[in-house]
Structures are given as C-alpha cells and as structure tokens.
C-alpha cells in the first residue's frame, strides 16, 4: 500500500511539472533546457545529479573526431574527419574548435604567407592569428564554417582564365587585301583626266605560338607602272610566363615614357591583354570594413559598376574595371541586419598610372627605322612603370645610341583622390652630332586630370617645357632630315587644356579644347581652339562646333640676321559647323537624313544633305545619296554604295562637280 502511494505521489508531482511547463511555455522558447532528473537512477538511495553542462551550450559538444563538411566564407571546400577540442572563446564561452590544416587554407586562397605563426605546434591552424577570423561548428548539420575577412583572401580577378587554358591559335595561312581605284574626268578641255590605283596586302601565317605578319602596298598614278613598298615585316609570339610579347622585325616602341620610335630589331614588352579584363588599365583599390556578412555595391556616375559579397572584417576590392573616365566611386556596404555604410573613393586617372603591385615594362634593341623604312643607327631602349600603394606610380627609362645619344627619364604620378590625378617627369639628354657638336639639355612634362561628378565636369591639363634649347630627342639626333624639324625648329613650350561638361540629360554636353606651341628663337607658333556642343531632341541628334586655328610663320633673310628683316605671316582659319541627323522609316526600312553646314571666314559656305540607308534581307547593302551647294564652287552631288559579302566587300561611287566627274571603286577581304 505504501509503495502504491509513493507511485501516485510521484506521478502527481510529474503532472504538476507538466502543467507548470505548459503554463510558462514562453520560457521554454527563450532557452532550451533538459532536466537531468529525467535520467537519474531513482532506484538508488544515494543518487547523484548527471552533469549536462557540456550540452547546455549549443556551441559545445564532446571533443573528438567528427566527419564534417568544411566551408570557407560560405564556399564548400570538401568533407573529411576533423579533430575537435574544447576551447574558450573570446566571449568566455566554451566551444569545439576544429583542427584545420595550413595547406587547406592556402589551397583555397587564404594569404597564409602574411601570418608566419599561423600553424601551431600540433599542426593545426590558429585562426586567432588572423584578425577577424573565426570558426563555428554546427553539430546538427555536421558542418564546420570558417569565416576569414576578404582582405586576407586572394580571390581571382573577374575575367581570370588560368594560363593552362589559353589557346595559341591554329596553324594557318592568311591574306587580307584591299584594292581601290579612282578616275577623274575633267569637264573642260583645259582640265586633264586623272587616275590612281592602290593595292594593300597583309599576308601572314600562324605556326604554333609564332605569328608572322607583313604589310606591303602598290600604287600607280596616271597609268604609270607603279611601285611596291614593304611597310613592315615582323615575327611575334606570346611569352605566357612573363605575360609579355616578343617581337622580331619592324615595330614601334611604346610611348608611355618616351616618344614612340620606329625600329627594326627585337622587343620584349608586357602585354595588358594577358591580364584579366578587370585588371587592365588603372582603377583604385577600394578598402573597407564589414561588420557582418555584407553586400558591397559600387556605383559610378549613378550606375552600378561592381557588386560582391564579403565576410565580416576588412575587405579589399582590386579588380574594378577601368572606365577610362574620371568619376568618384560611391560605395555602399549593406550589412546582414539591413543597415548600410556609405563612403566615397575619389577616382581620377592618367595613362601612366598602374595598379598597386603592377609592373609594366619594355626592352628594345635594334636599328632606328625612318618612315621610308630605311634602317639607320643602332639604339636600345628600356622603360619601367610600377604601381605603389596610395595610388602612386613610379616610372622611368633610358635610351642609348652608342656615343651619339643617351637619355634618361624619371617620373612620378599619383591619384590624389579628391584633388585629381597628376604626373611629373623629366628627361635629360646628351647628344653628339656628326660635326662634333655636343648638346646637353632637359625637358619637363606635367599632366593633370580631374573629374567633378556633382557638376558632370571633366578637365585635363598638360604642359611640356623644353627647358633648354640643347635638349634633343632620339629622332632629332638620328633622323635630323625629318621635315618637321626643318619646317618648325626646336620646340620651346607646349600647353594643352580640355574640358568636357555634361550639362544634363536633356541639355546635352559641351567640349572645349585649347593647344598652343612655340619654338626656340623664333616668332613661329601654333595655336588651336575648338568648341563643340552635342544634344538630341527625341530621335534627332545635332552638333554645333567651332574651331579657330592660328599659325604664325617666319621667313628669315639668308644674308641678314637682323630680326627686323624677318617676314612674319599669320594664317588664321575659323570654321563653324552645324550638323543634324534624323532617322525615319519608309516601308519598314530604316533611313537616315543628315544635314551639314560648313562656313569659313573669307571662304565658301557649304550646305550638304545626305540620305542613307540599308537594303537586302541581311542589311548588308549600304547606300547614300548626297547633294551639296557651295557659295564658291556651285553644286555637286554623288551616289555611293557598299556591299558586305561572304568572301569580299565591294564599294563603288560616282560624284559630280562643276569642274569634273569622279568614279571610285574598290574590293577588300581576307
């Protein structure tokens, strides 16, 4: 009887517990709890409580070996047996920590070289060495999740293709050709007929990694036999290990440090085309800190230029596509809780700027080649541009042509963020001429570029100061018979400025440019100013432009050095142009009507109207009709057509003016 009473009392006590538990269910939802009394041995007189504190925390389980799936920054890298040990976290709680291998992290892009003490004596990775790194073991899912700040992950840039997947092309012969002819018939007995023919050939072949190219042309005037000219021949291949291109034959040196020089010889130069397309050109590195798993959105000029997901901690974005224009980056970091961070990364660029850690180089040896394709003196050239942190680029180079010419260049450029981009370089030259003269001089170049997003303004400035009359370029010494130097002499100063203003989406854009150049010991100078306005009204687009060119020529008497005997002549040219472009449809065919007005001061005013369109099913026949009126030369007009075929492109035209009739024709293909 006593035993039954005890059982009834025990069941009653359980019922009370269940009733109380159902009354306060919200407490159970707040925190899971397992009463150890349920697994106590009630048959023993002296029973002890079972210690379940290890399981009281959802982060804690018994140490040991578990077969788990491993994820790094939410990317699964595989599954294996992992040894887990109980460890105390930074918040004081205890949790199982898995033994990760150093090679695992390295194989998955973690920059382990930055942390020499990352591997512990037991052969496990100590994630506390990496700032912001952590791991979490989900016992129920048997998954080990590792979080490492994106800053310490070496991600492949967008557009990256492993070199082992690159293709060198197929072995093949090729020939591109272009032939054109022109015949003019005089309308009067006093005018002569004229005829010209021109043929251009570009043969070549690919054999494994090697590519051979040739460019030759033939021309004939007025029935003459004509003459052949070989413009260039070169053999070229890629050097994948160096991401460079090797050239043997006729080519030109790069123009990033020195003026481009034609040569016949050997050249090794880095090739941006071997970089991922997001690594070509210059773009700043974007750095920030994410408080959680976040989304980073980068906008430029109101458009999304980049979007990616990052892990908690520091992140770095270094694979922005170069836009080729100035415009600050507006960066938004959208956190997991919906909150947002906003900051601006100013962006201005110049051609010489390189990304951090990027080296661009060229090495050339050979003979200087004039534009008549004659090989002259031997020379060598080497240049290097290297990108440093903080938007700084150092660059320089040297040119040597025996004891005849030596020069060295050094410069620095920087993206100064809110202040724009600037570069400054100097070139020092030493020249020895055939008559024994020696000249030592220097020149300075400064360039500046800035974009203002809020006003839609982009402007650039450039100044060239040839600080000494005795400064000489390589071309001036090796090729002194160039007509440019005979006609103009040595340059003294050159200034360039340009402004592009986007007024609004409805009011169009305005472009201004100005160039001025003068020469040593001469009143001779050149100045050019141009302005253009572009806009559209519905489908109609129109352009207004104005240009002013002033050339001051000086003729000095051969037998008198007195400046008073100089004969100076100013040639001023002013041109105003208005153009309209109107698309419309006739019988489901798209046509375009254009109108252009050209007027010059002290010269003729020309009005031109053109109607153009396409025909045939594949729209591969283009045609145009033109009618013009000149206040000086009268009326003229013409018709032209071109056809794009499978094996060749054909073109023909007929034009008539008061003085002559012209017929043109051509064929090209390859």
UniProtKB/TrEMBL annotation:
Region (Disordered): 651-670
Gene3D superfamilies: 2.60.40.3110, 3.10.20.410
Coiled coil: none
Localization: Cell outer membrane
Ranges of residues in domain PapC N-terminal: 33-180
Membrane topology, from the record: Multi-pass membrane protein
Residues spanning the signal sequence: 1-30
GO cellular component: cell outer membrane
MF annotations from Gene Ontology: fimbrial usher porin activity
Superkingdom to which the source organism belongs: Bacteria
Keywords carried by this UniProt record: Cell outer membrane, Fimbrium biogenesis, Membrane, Signal, Transmembrane, Transport
Listed InterPro entries: Fimb_usher, PapC_N, PapC_N_sf
Gene Ontology biological process: pilus assembly
NCBIfam families (alphabetical): PRK15298.1
Family per similarity comment: Belongs to the fimbrial export usher family.
Protein name, entry field: Fimbrial assembly protein
Organism from which the protein derives: Salmonella typhimurium
